[in-house]
Batch of 2 targets.
Target 1
Amino acid sequence: MSFDEKKWSRRNFLKTAGAAGAGSVLTALGGNYPARAADNPELSTVPQRPFGKSGINVSILSLGGMFNTGSNQLLLKQAVNWGVTYWDTADCYGWSGSEKGIGKYLSRFPEDRKKIFLVTKSDDRDPAGLSRLLARSLERMNTDYVDLYFVHGISGIDELNNRTRAWAEKAKADGKIRLFGFSTHSNMEECLLGAARLGWIDGIMMTYNYRLMHTTEMRRAVESCARAGIGLTAMKTQGGGSVITGSEAELKLAGRFVQKGFSDAQAKLMAVWENRQIASICSQMPNLTILAANTAAALNRTSLAAVDRMLLQQHAVETASAYCAGCTRICETAVGGRVPVGDVLRCLMYSRSYGDRDYAAGCFREIPQEIRNKMPGLDYSLAEARCPRKVPIGRLMREAVKELA
């Protein structure tokens, strides 16, 4: 059933989401909400969109598995019941626990495998490494194939080459993957434009949210991929996290959305879904409360008003310095490549916005100790001067060392 074919009234959305947003969703659904979801598929099934030119439809909401979501088997079952059947994970997520949790689920419910659009990723770029990690992922997840396999976290299209293409074509021919692509947190616009020129990329997952989606560069990159038939999945769609309660501007913005029957987090998802070139949004949903809130947002048929979109854009401009846009080619060059600025800022985001300090600290420790030792004493003034968003890079680098060491 397509996004446009399903009809789900604003009144029903208000019943589900409630005026208080995510916190009241489970109450609105009732204490036995897993059973009710199964009994009312028209009320609870997330719509789908075409994934590029693949001929495959995917749910517009994707279950992100970064924080070992796979360990919550009830969550996985409820995701299927509600039609959240695009599942995203990676070899490294949850220190392998995410893939193992999915494998446990598929061993219990093998009939659900055909319903699920399963995605995993590899940190390796070398064909031999890709083969080794894919084989391990398939074993962990108890499946013979994945629907989409990503090279994880590229920052430049030159990280892919003809050897990568040959590997992907063979993996497809062997029936181990259906589609191939990459994820990117850095220099997204250049990566998307490069993928469109390559002509053999099936899917991309990229940072994309209300802060980035309206720039000329991002709009041009997304349009190029859409013309090339590449399926696009948006991630990091909250643009830095939930409302900062110490900010009067953010509280006012959130209050407006609550009055209209949804939370600021739901509104940010809805803003991305309004671009039909985006096939799906990947969201970290580690518990049923967040899954239910995001599902309610996906089911909503009320478009954001023009003034809502304007306020989000205005807020993005006013708080630009609080959010890294991933243009690491600028800041990292300015420090002579001595610090992976984008990776450090992403670690801080996991800790401060996602509230998972342990995961953030683990990611931070993957940066070589020698670099971490040098970070507090480096001069970041040139990087700050060149940063188009005026992010206080030096201060954040020093805070990261203190918070995440």
Note: Confidence is low (pLDDT under 50) at residues 1-43.
Target 2
Amino acid sequence: MQKPALPCDETQRLKTLRCLDLLDTPPEERFDRFTRLAQRCFGVSAALVSLVDADRQWFKSRQGLDATETPREISFCGHAILDSEIFAIEDARTDERFRDNPLVTGDPHIRFYAGRPIAAPDGSKIGTLCLIDPAPRTLSDEDRQLLHELAEMVEDQLTAMELASVDELTGLSNRRAFRELSAKSLAVCRQLQKPACLLYMDLDQFKSVNDRQGHEAGDEVLREFGALLLDVFRESDVLGRVGGDEFCVLLTGTSAEEWKTPIERLAQSVEGHNRATSREVPLAYSMGVASFDPDAPISLVELVDRADAAMYRDKRRRAGESDTLPAE
């Protein structure tokens, strides 16, 4: 038996797969409809949407197979993701790579396999739409085209999922996704007794940029600020554009004494950006901070409300109306 090699982009591929948040999730009709259609159209015993994780292949959708996952080292899909074309085995018993594979010598007794790699929106091949059958068979050109088209439909679903959770302009999480990810992160912080901080930011004079320079200039400001946030904060932090010119960052595992360091880094990055761009209206923002204490936990809604209120106090302070510090 030949174990599948690792793709050259394995690290990024796994990162992309996990960011999709599909592993170990319940079945979904948007994927099941394609495996049902594939099983019926090709007349095979099983059709699967298989996701290739670090040490296993896990089936997001499965028709005709009881197993929910198998080790990656014996998977056919681990081989399939190494290329962009359909990976087809007409009779596994005659193929040196698979004839002594446990999936061939035992259940589900695979003879025929055909898998078309599924690419995430960033191009990473995260798994396959695959067909398996206990009888040898050959794919015709028409069969290949149909399998290709069905796999493209699965990819369209992945793109739709990303668009539903990602702000297209900045690449950050949108409001819905930010709240979902932050709620999960706070639950982990509560369980592990870790603190967290939420930063709420609103761009200053943003309406002036739109009014004086046009909405394209305003969009560019939003993109630039989003890029600065991505550069300054950690991959473990949750970043989102939650309104027209409003942004949030959830700093997990960060105490009230520790949040000042990343805030200072952001201020320095914005200052350097302004020096480099020399815009008519420099990039500026007001900020509020609210802390999450695992010993006295509050809901995400309350945490956001506190940071939002602190941000407005900071905005008034900047306008000379108050000297209140922007923190709770």
Note: The chain has a mean pLDDT of 92.
